[in-house]
Amino acid sequence: MFNELLQPVLDNPLVQLSQRLCWLFFVIFSLALVFWTWRDAERRGAMSWFWGLVVLLFNIPGWIVYMVVRPPESLADERERELEIRAREAELQRRFPSCPACFKPVEDDYLICPSCMKKLKKECISCGRALKLDWTVCPYCKTKQ
Ligand SMILES: [Zn+2]
Ligand SMILES: [Zn+2]
User: For residue 61, how far is its CA from the centre of ligand 1 (angstroms)?
Assistant: First the structure.
């Protein structure tokens, strides 16, 4: 009875077409999900082929499982963030120089750290400006040290 009622609807070419489009969409969506999972797992250093297969077999439930157990962040991202932090630290160091021994702020032209007395710079023998300890010539007056 139900089937008899439904059959003309199902035979309608428009319904059949939309049914087929739905399937097509589902297949493309599944493949895209598999591809996304595979790539994401590879980026994060997880077993990419395994998770790709899981999503291929179980579809969205498999994908949800992957989202729960996947590693928190990719190795590349982690390294990138580390580099970013280090660059920011170097930038801070450049703008607000600090003593390498006690980490208290110092001025660029300090010869020693006022807090711990560590030698930071040397004085030019000719013009008296603050020079880095490893400089062999004064860049201000060209005098060899
Ligand atoms: Zn110091
Ligand atoms: Zn000098």
Answer: 58
